[in-house]
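User: My collaborator sent over this chain with a note saying "see what the structure looks like." That's all I know about it. Can you take a look?
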Amino acid sequence: MSALSDPIWRRYRRFFGPKVQEDVAEELKSHLEMREEDYVKTGMDPASAREKALRRFGNFRKASAECVEIGQRHTRGTRRRETLDAFRHDVMYALRQLRRGPGFALVVILVLALGIGVNLTILGLVDTMLLHPLPGIAHTERLVSIDNRSLSYPSFKDLQRAQLFDGIGAYRTRMLSLRQSGEPALAKVGIVSGNYFTLLGARPGHGRLLQPSDDQPGAPAVTVVSAAYWRRAFAADPAVVGKTVSINGQPFTIIGVGGAQFRGLDLTYAPDVWIPVALWPAVAPTGFDRLGLEMRSWGWIKVFGVLKPGVNLAQGQASLNAVAREIQAAYPTETSTDYSMVLVPSSTGAIGNARDSVVNFFVVLLIVVGLVLLLAAANVANLLLARATHRRREIGVRLALGAGSGRIIRQFLTEALVLSTLAGVVAIGFMVLAMRLLGTLTLPGGMTVAELGVSVDPRVLLAATAAILVTGVFLGVVPAAHTAGFRIVPSLRESGSAGRQGRSRLQSSLLAVQVALSLVLLITAGLFGRSLQRALNIDPGFRTDHLVSASVDVGLARYTPVQSSQFLATAQEQVARLPGVTSVGWSTSIPLTDGVSSYSLDIAGYLPAKDEVPEVETNLVSSTFLQTLSIPIQRGTGFDSSRPLGSPRTVIVNEAMAKRYWNGREALGGRIMLMNDTLTVIGIARDAQYHTLTDPATPLAYIPLAQRAMETGEARMTLFVRTTGNVDALVPLVRQQLRSIAPEVPVFDIGDFQDRIGELLLPQRLGVQLLGAFGLLALIIASVGVYGVVGYVVARRTREVGIRMALGEAPGALVRRMVRDNLGSIVIGLIVGAALAAVVGRAAVSFLYGVSPTDPVTYVLTALILLAASLLAAFLPARRAARVSPMNALRSD
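Assistant: Without extra context I'll predict from the sequence alone. Here is the result:
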């Protein structure tokens, strides 16, 4: 049959059918045949008629393609409208389901929001500190730094000849005295080359930034303040440009404010102000003024560069080393034997020496918050699974009305995505709130959360979207897979309460997962808590209670050695007169801060091993220092403050040094050559911890201040004050006394010395705070999950309960039976959780003091706590069901 014999309505109906291309070809063919027949009727022969018809019709293939495209576009549009319409119906149905159970929806949304929110918060911190740690800087992908090497200023100037760089700059941050108004205070001063801001592509917040013309001899003394310092010290006054501040006694004019996000190249040591390198000699502290910019042997500044577009790291390094070899050849006596340069991306050094500890800490934290999200998802999945079982009749009705299994699965996925989307929106709000609440929290490296400027940027939103989609799909697949085998007739026959007995394997598995993940979080928090408890109980070798410490730096006031000695003596004498003070002492090194200087030495009678260079750490102290810190002299005597300068030099060594270098011999009376002096050992002091609480004591020598003048590097001193009274009340008195003696000397880090131990134990304290909160959250989520799931299961077994009670089974036995049904999953979860906790514990071992990652006390206690909470959560709904009247239970539907 030809196409012309079909009714015209059928041909047009097929035009939008599933075989559009065939129908179009047939339709166009029919039109061509109609035109050809018309020409034949006018007397033309068939061949001429066909030729003319084709000529009049035009490009047959083009017309066919256009018609096919129209048909396919119409088909796609129809399908798209149908899909969107079906999705809209699914979303509206999901929202109606949530309105019918607002309590259930609220619990699910809050649990998911907490799980997603804590992950977004930690991911925001990781993104800011580790992945994108240099905000306010352009072309960070081409920004490189010389790794682990400081250079002299002349060498830096020579390196600017290197090819393949858009520019090479220099910087160094030092703590200097800054006076805005009133008392001087320590500030982080960035000493930078004139091209520093230009190379980094930084933009000013107000005024202008430093330029190469500012970094010239004789140029006016100008400075740029950071946005953070501007807000802190100047209350964000826009008229700050043009004001004057004093840096180490020298006036500087403020010419601008840095951008809001710009913090330089070192996140852990972000400058408060920046000054040009050319002005360093004008502000150099005592002892550094002789180290001029022209000294090639003094390496003190860090160098960075911006690679030209298309130049890789290896090429830039080769170009730099070509110039380095020229420098070494020209100045062989002023450069090291190995003068090669190693380039690294500048972002890798953004958190300085704290990078390893920060990375390790965040690895542990990411594992923990990932477990929180898994726990929340498992908890919600179990609730949705129980709810899906409760909806068997509804599913049966929909199947009976013609809905396919794919339609049911799509509905479950839509409902889960709606829940996870609502939870994601709440999670972002939770992240913003968490950042505000955690603003003062100090992270490893000394940074506070507020200083990082973590925000809900596109990367965080992308992570939130991924978390929402993955969570939604998981939550939709679990109940969808569970209901895939539902049959219409059994589902319609099944009443709302007389479902299958017992629990499904999937429900049991999810319950075990909840318990396992909760145990991991609780054990991790317990390990950090036990570690902190052990650390606080470690004896550091001296008394930390009732002790005030206050640091000064007389070099920042540009004191001479004589002025420095006079200030220290006067301050010690006057502070000792304050009420409640029992002892006062000065020290160059502070215990438990890892800031001890080491020197090589020669020891009479000691024969070093091959390739051994004997070294000892030193601490310059006043004669009363050991007494003030309650460090006892084990043998020998202490220092005599009456010994004048030039008298025979003495030294007190610790037990570790006596054992190391006089093992088997008497150390008292021994003589050592140290710091160009010959010293006689007069006493052996008890070991005290100068690095960490757990590291073994290292050889240490106490050298008396009274027997030597202040020299370079000894300008920063710390005053220790022992009191019988209240430490907090003494702190302002000590500060006031020191200010009155020398107003130009900055006083800093003053307070209760026990706070320093708190800083030392920051990772442990932070771990206890965060992991403790996560552990408590896990315990609550697990308990709610067990309670909710068991409640659903018990509700479905109401008729079974009624039958058993009618047959005489006691309520107590019923309760024990239903609790016992959940005990197996709980025990399996505890076993699996203990194994997983051992793996997580190994990742956190570097933060644990005196506690094994498999500490049995922690494991047993947390397992018992979680077991008790889980059994209680299973007991409550079981007891409620056992109290139902048998008649009401049998009548329930």
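A starting point for your reply to your collaborator: Residues 1-6, 8-17, 491-503 have pLDDT under 50 and may be disordered.
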